[in-house]
Design a protein that fits this description.
The complex is a heterodimer. Chain A is an alpha+beta fold. Chain A has helices at residues 5-12, 64-77, 82-86, 90-97, 104-126; strands at residues 27-34, 39-47, 53-61. Chain B has 12 helices and 13 strands. By secondary structure, chain B is of the alpha/beta class. Helices cover 38% and strands 14% of the residues of chain B. The chains are: A alpha+beta, B alpha/beta.
Amino acid sequence: MAYSDKVIDHYENPRNVGQLDEKARNVGTGMVGAPACGDVMRLQIEVSEEGIIEDAKFKTYGCGSAIASSSLLTEWVKGKTLEEARQIKNTDIAEELALPPVKVHCSVLAEDAIKAAIEDYASKQEG
Amino acid sequence: MKLPIYLDYSATTPVDERVAEKMCRCLTLDGTFGNPASRSHPFGWEAEKLVDEARAQVAGLVNADPREIVFTSGATESDNLAIKGAAHFYRKRGKHIVTVKTEHKAVLDTCRQLEREGFEVTYLDVEPNGLLDPEKFRGALREETVLASVMHVNNEIGVIQDIAALGEICREKKVVFHVDAAQSAGKVEIDLQALPVDLMSFSAHKIYGPKGIGALYVRRKPRVRLEAQMHGGGHERGMRSGTLATHQIVGMGEAFRIAGEEMAAENARILALRNRLWDGIRDMEEVYVNGDLEQRIAGNLNVSFNFVEGESLMMALKDMAVSSGSACTSASLEPSYVLRALGREDELAHSSIRFTLGRYTTEEEVDYVVAKLREQVQRLRDLSPLWDMYKAGIDLKSVQWAAH
């Protein structure tokens, strides 16, 4: 299978790889997928008092398209409000990276990851 | 050194130059282009002579009688002819077949077809090292079992089944024994005078011959009967009709001749290279060989790099041609059924890479691969949340994953 240039670029030079302090109150963590299925994404966001995503980090176990989807997502969410980030659709990611149909599930996983991270952040604010 | 490096010799091999040269002489007007079945002129006679020579060369590698060799289009057709042909011919004796879960799809799918026709098939498990326990095999054979099919060498993990022991059991139980030898001919000694095997499938393109040609060995003493699957002019003793492809057959013959002469030296050389590859990576953390390392052909190394997904690793190894058991490399999104049959966890199956070395692999290439592998596995592990968790001492099995 041939990969798009954008997938290769993100795969070879992934943006925002790393880890934020999971326990911090202003950090939301989303971990989705399963090792048995061949992909696991961990996406973390650091949110300011004003509700703006100031930083985002990821680590992904998965194929090149899964790595590229999560890398792209961290670029997109930075500077966005939580509400704006929630609006990101997997189809936007799939389109930007020109993912073939068999790889669309990678973009779905990325959408699940940002939703889970926002959820986690929100639950911390309630507590 | 030329890039990309070819390390997928179990998928196919380049045609040996000596083979290609002989093949080219059977195509054009000034070559031996005749139909080997033409009895009325020298064009046919000459072609027939070359086919006879090639048949003897193929038989020679496995110590068979040339009259026991039936040319086909490849090992897939040979498997189909052997399994369907024997099952159909002997169906009055019984309708039970025994095979193994790690067989090639050409065997498994043919068995599925026979199930649709009313046969019953037992698919045996293998041990964690990929080998079949002969006693479990014996236990699966019944009064109404007509045929057993077990591959000699597995295409993914390269393990060698004890076909001598399995064949003895079949003799004792009066069961026809078929062996798919697509991955073993030219790599493992095969002596059909000594081995209790009734039917054996061969391929040319796995041992530096052309694609599109193979053969089926059909034992004469004791005689094994088959129902033809391809009908027509009655070629190949009525077992496989169709004009004989002289150039393909000549190519297969030459490839088998070379294999017979060079196998011992070639195996020693390739084994040294494979050991060099394994020695170069075995001290890395969480690296596992899939399948028995001793009962294995020289050219195969199938390794799982835990916490790294196979397809992403293949992407990193873009200047080498390897294959992976990862689901992402297959259309089905299922990881390798062979590795799963060994009882490997799915994550290790997803993380597997198959390296197969061959005639043109060099030490320089192996060293390049080792260096690339070490660097890229580390890079991808630094990207992997599972590696983080492993390093933090978290048991991944204790985590509640959301399967998707």
